[in-house]
Write a structure and sequence with these properties.
Radius of gyration: 22 Å
Strand order of the largest sheet: 11-12-13-14
Organism: Streptomyces olindensis
Strand content: 15-25%
GO molecular function, one term: DNA binding
Mean pLDDT: 94
Keywords: DNA-binding
Helix content: 40-55%
Number of domains: 2
InterPro entries: AlkZ-like
Structural class: alpha+beta
Protein name: Winged helix DNA-binding domain-containing protein
């Protein structure tokens, strides 16, 4: 067996540009192509989904209509809980894989925690909760999509409250509807539906999840890891453990099962998908991009020094580790951007190395491209970072 191939930073950035659909030659035609290429779009902030898609479409003017169509009409994309108990948008065909590989373990913990908290708070037992659950799902099926308040009209027991953490400093009242719908979400029984307002709204309806087969957990983990490596590889074991939220034993088993190939990175040992060992050349031309807070590329790896200098992080991340809006030039983060109240897209370069007139012109073009399809819409990231707040109010 030959020596493991070394993949350096230039090639990793070339792979990122092409696989993450950021270079102009790699831009996608539809939101489904974007989601399939990236495996998952962060969905905690609803605006992130649209902004991440718009940054990667050949025709960004289609962003809002086409993403809404995919999510709420064709249901070719689904917003649901996934890795690390985080809300993502997945291709519908991948929901069974995500559910079996990741959701089942989280769901078991969430249901057990709910039953424990209800018992401690003096609420009814598991049999009662099961009745409420079945009635709620039936009501949701009749309505098609509904808010928690609307479902409580059909199933009044959803309004029941119980005391959480009695006697502690964070004691509070929990409503059955809030906790139960969250559990049903991680169990893959319900998904997020249409927002109550515009596409930027955080208020949403619920919908019954698309039917999907029950898969073997180990096989699903191997498939998910193989897909992610094809989109984001090479990656270290630490990257894979962080992205999936799995135990290291699960990651190692899935690496072996999906036929991942070892490579050498600057950080040490890494992995690529089994057939993805050939060198990848840089895009045909330099590229710039303005990516939103929580973008799946910026958040894709735990070890980020190869595309984001450590000294930039205090300005670009919040205290919980959520990345804000970022400015990219040729595969690395060089600054951040924000939208001011009047709609202007403003940006600042924090890392000047290798950034000349060509880069500034490309960034300005990307800002105009973003402003063009946003129109009168105003965006405020859900997780605000120091630089974003400064630029937005400056």
């Amino acid at each position: 067996m030959g020596a493991e191939r070394y993949i350096g930073v230039p090639e990793r950035r070339a792979r990122l540009a092409l696989r993450q659909r950021l270079a102009r030659q790699a831009r996608a035609g539809t939101p489904e192509e974007v989601a399939d290429a990236l495996v998952a779009l962060h969905g905690t902030d609803p605006a992130t989904v649209y902004l991440a898609v718009g940054a990667r479409l050949a025709d960004p003017a289609k962003t809002v209509d086409e993403t809404g169509r995919a999510l709420y009409e064709d249901r070719s994309l689904v917003r649901m809980h996934g890795m690390r108990h985080t809300v993502f948008v997945f291709p519908t065909g991948l929901t069974a894989v995500v559910h079996a590989s990741t959701g089942l373990a989280v769901a078991a913990r969430e249901r057990a925690a709910l039953l424990k908290d209800m018992a401690a708070g003096g609420a009814p037992d598991a049999a009662w909760l099961k009745e409420v659950e079945e009635s709620t799902l039936a009501a949701l099926a009749r309505r098609g999509q509904a808010t928690a308040a609307e479902l409580a009209q059909d199933e009044p027991r959803l309004r029941e409250q119980f005391v959480y953490a009695a006697g502690k400093s964070y004691e509070g009242l929990h409503t059955v509807s809030t906790r139960l719908l969250k559990v049903l979400g991680v169990e893959g029984k319900v998904v997020r539906g249409r927002p109550l307002g515009s596409w930027t709204s955080s208020q949403f309806r619920w919908a019954v999840a698309p039917e999907h087969p029950e898969l073997d957990a180990a096989e699903a983990q191997a498939e998910l890891l193989g897909r992610w490596l094809a989109a984001c590889g090479p990656a270290t074991e630490a990257d894979l453990k962080w992205w999936t939220g799995w135990r290291v034993t699960d990651v190692r088993r899935a690496l072996a099962a999906c036929g991942a190939r070892p490579v050498t990175l600057d950080e040490g040992p890494g992995f690529v998908a089994g057939e993805d060992v050939d060198p990848v050349s840089a895009p045909d031309e330099p590229w710039a991009a303005l990516l939103p807070g929580l973008d799946p590329t910026a958040m894709g790896w735990q070890q980020r020094d190869w595309y984001l200098a450590p000294e930039l992080r205090p300005q670009l991340f919040d205290r919980s580790g959520n990345v804000g809006p970022t400015v990219w030039w040729n595969g690395r983060v060089i600054g951040g951007w924000a939208q001011r109240p009047d709609g202007e897209i403003t940006w600042r370069i924090l890392d000047e190395e290798g950034v000349g007139r060509e880069a500034r012109t490309a960034i300005e073009t990307a800002a105009e491209r973003l402003s063009g399809w946003l129109g009168t819409t105003r965006i405020t990231p859900r997780f605000r970072t120091p630089l974003e707040k400064e630029l937005a109010t400056g």
